[in-house]
Amino acid sequence: MTTPVPGKRSRAFTLIELLVVIAIIAVLVALLLPAVQQAREAARRSQSKNNLKQIGLALHNYLDTHSVFPAAYLADTLHSNRDPNTFDGPNGFAWGAMLLPQLDQAPLYNQLRTDLPCWSPLNTAAVAINLPVFLSPSATNSDGPMTVKNGSGTTLARFGRSHYVVNSGQDEPWGYQLANLSQVADGPFYRNSRTRPADVSDGLSNTVFVGEHSIVSDKTWVGVVPGARVCTIDPQRFPITQCDLAATLVSAHSGPAVAEIDPLIGFAPIHPPNSPLCHVCQMYSPHVDGAHILLGDGSVRFVSQYIDQPTWAALSSCRKGEVVGEF
User: Fold this and answer.
1) Does the predicted TM-score (pTM) go above 0.90?
2) What DSSP character marks residue 143?
3) Fewest CB atoms less than 10 Å from the CB: which of 115, 170, 292, 296?
C-alpha cells in the first residue's frame, strides 16, 4: 500500500482546463467535418459516374447484338387502348428494361412479360425493384418504388426508380401529336427509335446519350404508362416547374423546343443541367454546379450548369451539324 507523501498534492484538470480541451476538440471537429463531407460526396459522385460507364457499356453491347441502340421506350401507336393525345400505347417498356441483360440482370429481364404492358398486374413484382446501377448515391429520392399517376392523381403503376434519363434532343418530341416521332426528334432516343451510329452524324463523342435526373421529379428504368403525368416532387423548391407528359418518365431534352416558347420572353429557353429555370423534362443532378452525362462514345463527362447554352443544345442534338467546342 502506497503511503501519501506529506505536503504533496495530486495534480488534476481544473474545470477551466477541461472546458478549453472540449472547445479545442469542437473546433477540430468543425474543421474536419466539411472535409469528411466532401470526401463522401466525391465518393458518391464517383459511383454515379461509374453507373453511367456501366450503362454506356451496356448500350454498346446492346448495339452489337441488335445493330441499333434501344428506343427510349416502345409503344404500339395504333393500339385501341393508346393515349389519344400522345399516341402512347403498350407495351411501354423503356431503355432501362431493354438493357437488363447487358447489365447482369438477365434473371430479372426473364421475369418480365414483355408480351404484356409494363403496367400489367403480371409484371407488378418485377418492375417495382430498385437496381443500384440506376440510382445515384447522392440523390435523396431513392427509397422504394416510384408511383406513376395520371392527371387526376390516380395511381397507374409502381416502378423501380432511375436517376438517369436518355436524351431526346433539343426539341421535345412528346409534344407533337404524331405516331412517327422520327419526323421531329433531333436526339438519339425517342419513342420507337432505332438509332444506329451512322444516324448520329454529329459524332458519338459530340452527342449526349444519357444524363442524371433526380430531386426535381421521379424517373424510372421500367417504362411509360399512357396517360401518366410527371410532376415535381418538391413544388416549393421548384415552383415554376409544370407537369409533363408520360414520355418524361424516361426521357429529357435540352431545349430550345418549338412547343415550349415562353410567352414572357418570346423564345424557347435552353436548359443546361441544373438550370434554375428547370423542368421535369431536363437533366438535373444532386451535385453542386452540374451533372454527369454519358456521351455516345461511352465516355462520361461532368458538365457545368454554366456551360455555354448553344454548346449544350448542340451536344443534345445528334444530326443538326452544329459545331461543338470545348465544354
Assistant:
1) no
2) S
3) 115
